[in-house]
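Lecture notes, part 5. Sequence design as translation. It can be helpful to think of inverse folding as translation between two languages: the language of shapes and the language of residues. The source text, in structure tokens, appears below.
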């Protein structure tokens, strides 16, 4: 089992430094590769990132693509074993996806998360819960608390716990099988919502039907918030 970390950024270096540092401190497990996609569209900025974070392979090339376009490009690279425009091979089983404006508040056992995804192929992802963000979430006390009956707590023989649901796919910090990248990310606005709906309708690339697809939040219902969203303003477009 091997895991690649994919950091998506768009020029907000004041957040990126904190996010990378927090990920380095809190992520544990069989991580073999660190990738970064910079959607600034600025080659000089990308060169600076390569020097500042030598542990990362930089995937961003060309003009600014926007939120959906950036994920589409990064996934197109990660979904094949031999990156067409890069001199490296990609053989990781899973991808941990994190945007540049999240920091971690708890240690994250990516190996345990990957074990659950392996044994439960109906799960498209296991995400980490953040703090309430919009007015409805704050009024309810959290994402899960807003629609508590839609989240079903599950456990396994190893003591892992997670919440399964069919509400949405999220690009908040999450782990998913690398094979999911072969599904392709949609272009245009509302791409995150449309991608989740597509999975629920068409199923997963490894043969799970849409009716059986579930998404998950890592941790028991009372495990609290694992990450904090620190970006007040979005710099990307096309969500």
């Amino acid at each position: 089992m091997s895991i690649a970390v994919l950091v998506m950024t768009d020029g907000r270096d004041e957040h990126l430094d904190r996010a990378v540092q927090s990920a380095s401190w809190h992520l544990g497990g069989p991580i073999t590769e660190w990738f970064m996609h910079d959607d600034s569209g600025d080659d000089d900025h990308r060169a600076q990132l390569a020097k500042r974070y030598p542990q990362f392979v930089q995937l961003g090339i060309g003009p600014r693509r926007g939120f959906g376009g950036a994920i589409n490009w990064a996934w197109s690279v990660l979904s094949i074993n031999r990156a067409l425009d890069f001199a490296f091979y990609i053989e990781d089983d899973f991808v941990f996806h994190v945007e540049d404006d999240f920091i971690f508040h708890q240690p994250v056992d990516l190996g345990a998360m990957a074990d659950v995804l392996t044994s439960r192929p109906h799960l498209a992802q296991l995400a980490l819960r953040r703090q309430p963000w919009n007015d409805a979430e704050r009024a309810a006390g959290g994402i899960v608390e807003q629609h508590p009956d839609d989240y079903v707590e599950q456990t396994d023989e190893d003591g892992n716990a997670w919440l399964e649901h069919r509400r949405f796919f999220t690009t908040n910090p999450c782990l998913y099988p690398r094979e999911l990248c072969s599904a392709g990310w949609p272009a245009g606005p509302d791409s995150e919502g449309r991608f989740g709906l597509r999975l629920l309708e068409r199923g997963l690339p490894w043969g799970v039907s849409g009716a059986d697809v579930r998404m998950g939040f890592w941790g028991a219902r009372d495990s609290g918030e694992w990450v904090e969203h620190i970006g007040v303003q979005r710099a990307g477009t096309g969500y």
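The translated text above is only one of many valid answers, since several sequences can fold into similar shapes. Residues 234-239 have pLDDT under 50 and may be disordered.
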